[in-house]
Amino acid sequence: MGSRIMHLVIANRIAECLSIEDRTSFLLGGIAPDAVSPKELSHFFKGEVQDYTRSIDYKEFLHKYHAQVESHYILGYYTHLIADDIWLKGFYLPWLKNRMEANKEILHLYHNDFRLLNGKLLEYYGFTDELRKMLSGIPSIFDLQEVKSKDVEEFIPYVLGDMQYDTEVINEKLNVFTFDQIVGYIETSVNKGLLNIKPLLT
After folding, report:
1. pLDDT digits (tens, 9 = 90+) for 70-99
2. If residue 171 lies in a helix (H) or strand (E), which one and from where to where?
3. What's the whole-number mean pLDDT along residues 34-52?
4. Reduced to 3 states, what is the DSSP secondary structure of residue 56?
5. Cα–Cα distance for residue pair 117/170, rounded to 1 Å
6. pLDDT tens-digit profile of 128-139?
7. 20 to 30 A Cα–Cα from 164, which one of 116, 124, 126, 140?
8. Closest to 82 measured CA to CA, from 170, 11, 179
């Protein structure tokens, strides 16, 4: 699945495009599904990895929480699920799972790429200070059955930790992904998120 920073960037880009006022709640929703482990319930998975039917039922999430659909926190959560469904179908199932099973070293390289990408993406999009500021004051968010507000609050220090990087990572080589590939994933997630959220705001 996409990293914490990828999800934060996606949520912030969507919030910018939609001029969302309560951006902090939207950003918190954008990282909330990863605040708990295991992630089976928080990601609304359906289908099986083994037969390649695995997907994320983000429409079911929206149906379950339709009464709170005007909440920016709920909309942010929705964007996370959409982005992870794209990752699942575009990265994990088609090739990444196969390579990780064939070569145990790939998992380590993949996690190292995510670490390097934190700095690379924050430099590329240029809103590290803005994100840090928005995550410094936490608004009250409500408990969902899958993720409690306390889980999200305890998760924030890890996200802020991802924003600390040495400038030399900017030029370090990725081993599993390419930078353009990840930017393409982020921008596609933004576009699909916008397509799904705009009708809910009218």
Report:
1. 999 999 999 999 999 999 999 999 999 999
2. none
3. 96
4. strand
5. 8
6. 999 999 999 888
7. 140
8. 11
